[in-house]
Amino acid sequence: MPTQFIHKMNKTEAGFHILMILSLVDGNIQHAESSVILEFLEERFHEPIEIIKEQAFIRACPEEERFNHFTETAQHFYKISDSAERNSLIEFAMKVVMADEKMEHAENAYINALYDCWGLE
Fold it and tell me: Distance between CA atoms of 69 and 1, rounded to whole angstroms?
């Protein structure tokens, strides 16, 4: 069951959570990664984001809750976006995951969950 916090997210915030969690799956987030992710989202969605608050939430999210937060956020993004926006985000998500030229098992699980949430094949 999604939290109230997730229901209030705009597309930029939800996309930021999705992409940053994908970046975090392989162990850590580089500052350069978060900058590229934020730039991508701001160019596409033009909605406000309190970056410090969102980063703090993601860092504070316990590892055992991360997957649930990811899927709830993905479901919310689906509801507030159109197919072109989702396709753009998933294309970028694949670039984030494949930045190191390999897909780890955990990264694959998250990408599969995103495809499942959005009914993609």
Answer: 10
- How many Å apart are CA 112 and CA 121, to the nearest integer? 9
- For the stretch 30-68, pLDDT in tens is 666 777 888 898 899 989 999 889 988 988 999 899 999
SS (H, E, C) the chain: CCCHHHHCCCHHHHHHHHHHHHHHCCCCCCHHHHHHHHHHHHHHHCCCCCHHHHHHHHHHCCHHHHHHHHHHHHHHHHHHCCHHHHHHHHHHHHHHHHHHCCCCHHHHHHHHHHHHHCCCC
106 Cβ neighbours under 8 A, 6+ residues apart: 25, 26
pLDDT value at residue 96: 83
